[in-house]
Structure formats: C-alpha cells, structure tokens
Amino acid sequence: MELNFVFLQHFLKTIVKYFLLVFIGFSAFAQNGITGNKKWYIKTAFNYGFILQHRLAIGDLIRGWVPMYEFDLVKPTNGSKLWHLENNKPEVGIMVNLMTFRNPDVLGQSIAVAPFIEIPLNEKVKPSRLYMRLSWGLSYLTKSFDAETNHKNIAIGSHWNAFVGFRWFWQMNLSKKLRLEPGFSLSHMSNGRGKVPNLGLNLISLNMGLNYKLNDEEDVPTFVDSNTVAPSRHELLVWASYGFNETGNPGGPKYSNYTLSFNYYFNKRNTNKLGLGADLYYEELYLEDLKEKNIPPASFSDKIRVGPKLAYAYSIGRISLPIEWGYYVGAKISPEGMFFHRMGVRYTGPKGLVVQFGLKTHFGVAYHFDYGIGYRLSFAKKKHVKD
Predict the structure, then answer these.
(1) Residue 300's CB: how many other CB atoms inside 10 A?
(2) End-to-end CA distance of the chain
(3) Are the CB atoms for 327 and 333 separated by under 8 Å?
C-alpha cells in the first residue's frame, strides 16, 4: 500500500486524538468485570476487498481492489458478569484500520478507529470456532468532496465519517499462543447526510488475521454479577432525539430534525428484545419538501410525520443495538419513500435512564444521525430471565 507523507501526518494526529478515547474505553471495560482477567491479545489482520457499487453514480470512482491493514488490541471477558456468559464469554477491543482506495486523487486513503466486540456463535469451546464482530467508531478520509479541487467525489462529503463494521470469522488455534482468523467483513463509512454529497462507501472484503496471546493467566471469578438482568419481560421506552442534515448543493443550510419515540419491548431472552412502537418526526427538511411541492401545511399536525414501527434489539449487558423498520402514515408527501429504518447504539443505566446514538435511513440512504435521551419503565418484577 502506497502511503504519502501527508496521510501519515493525519494518521499520527488521529492516534493522538484517540488516545484518550482508547483509555476511557478500556476503563469502561474494567468497570464491566474485565480487569480480573490478565489475558491480553494483539492482532494483526490483512483485508482485501472491493467497494460495492450501490449507486450507478459512484461507478466511475471504483478503480480496483482495496487493501486494508489492521491492528487490534484485544481483551477477553472472564465470566464475572452475566453478559459475559450470555454471549459465550466474548472478547472486546480497539481496532485501528488503514486502507487505501485505488483512486488516490479522488477517494484518497482512510484510517478508522473503533471499539468492537467479538461474540462466539456457539457455546462449545473447540479448536475451530465461529465468531461475529460488531464495531462502530470514526473514520478519517484524506479526500472528500470539494467543488473546486475534488468535484468528482460524490460519495464522501466530509473528512470525518462514522465507521460501522461487521465481520464473521473462524478462530483456528495454531499453538497455545497463536490463532489464525480467516473470514469476511462488511464495512460502511458515511457522515449520515450531515454534509452532502453523502452516498457513502460500502466495502466487502476477505480477512486473514493472526492473533498472538501476550498472557495466558486468568482469574476464575467466584461471583457472577447479574445486575444487567432485565427487570421484567415487559417494558416501555420513551426517548427524544435531535439530529441535522443537509440537502441540495454542498455547503447549503443545515436542517434540524426532532424525534419523539414511544416503544414497547418484550424481553424474549435477556439478550433479545422484540418491540412495537411509533415515532413522531418534526423535520425541517420535510417542511422544505412541502414548500417545494407547494403544499402549505394547514396545521401543526401536517408538519409532523408519524411512523408506526417494528423493533428488535440485541443486548450486551447495559448496551443494546436496536434495529427498527417503520412506515409513514398520513404523510402529505414522502420524497424518500414511505418506509424508514433506524439502527444505533443504546445504553440503559441501572435506574432506567437511556442515552443513545442512532442513524435514520430510507432503504440504505442515510437521512440523519441523531443523539437522544430517554427513560425505560419496567412492568411487574420477574423472578428470573433465563438466557
């Protein structure tokens, strides 16, 4: 991979910026019962893949295969928390990913820094074991759209973007210290339409990792902390969020978006929630769409889009990963289509306070990121939720 000096400068600056984030991240892991385990791994991986042409418009940007280099710092959980056992004692870590696109003048290169969790998909520990990795962090791209110097880059409108990664791989023990990890990955980078253009980059790649154990020592826990058990099988969740987006020509005005959401969840298992709900959206961009179509709202209710939805959330202790599918009811117009989708990261405190970060899309086209706060109300207490 060819690296220029300017990109190396960006790389070093990013590492410095994220040093505090890495420190805070592993401090959080410590609070979740990981420090009792003295095991540490380091992992290097090579990915080789391609940019998925999800829109005809980005076809000219794709010039060839994309190599990706990765370095991970990994720590396994030790079973001292209930969520460790519910997820077959997963491993957590921080990833630094470096990739170069075969179109250096337009797409340039990128670096991503993201925390991740790797979950074994079968309970039985054996020499070859299938894992799934989930990661969500930030990426920095050296090239983004510029009307004067880089007008062809219609995929990425800003240097800073969200990074979302999924990986499925096998752990194959070569020795007591070494593991080989072949698999494949899906990666996405975009700014959530915070700045246009924002078609985003989606990559599919084959992965080959080599994992080295720095320390095999492990403290066997004598007590399992189960304070993350859902208080009841039935719960209500209410949250509100704020986000913004852009439309039209780059550099135009930003539009605010407000969401109020009402949700019911059934805790089928302590790690899985099924839900129903409805979102109320007050979005300035939607008002601009009404104005453009010469449809003045007759009342405040005409300014709001209402969307009943289905929901699912996978819980990892107090962190959950919600996925939602909804349909606009009674909207005057819907330029993006009648269906909307949401995904994100949600943290629920011991007293029911909820904070979250989410992305709203319409069939894969980002509409906005948002930041929310809410409250979870549980019904009658239950004796036990068996996972």
Answers:
(1) 8
(2) 45
(3) no
Separation CA 278–CA 272 (nearest Å): 20
d(CA 175, CA 64): 36
The two domains 5-215 and 234-378 share their CATH topology (first three levels equal): yes
* CATH-assigned architecture of domain 5-215: Beta Barrel (2.40)
pLDDT tens-digit series, residues 258-287: 999 999 999 998 999 999 999 999 999 999
Yes or no: say if 34 and 78 are a contact pair by the CB < 8 Å rule: yes
The fold for domain 234-378 equals Porin (2.40.160)
CA distance 296 to 56: 34
Tokens 């990955």 locate to 185
What is the C-alpha separation between 247 and 288, in angstroms, rounded? 10
Residue 197: asked if its preceding bond is cis (omega within 30°), the reply is yes
What the block records as the tokens of 122 is 């079968």
Could you give phi then psi for residue 187, rounded to 5 degrees? -130, 145
Q: What is the pLDDT of residues 163-197, one digit of tens each?
A: 999 999 999 999 989 999 999 999 999 998 999 99
Map out the domains of the chain as residue ranges.
5-215, 234-378
Tokens (6 digits) for 19 = 């040093």
333 CB-near residues (< 8 Å, 6+ apart): 289, 290, 293, 295
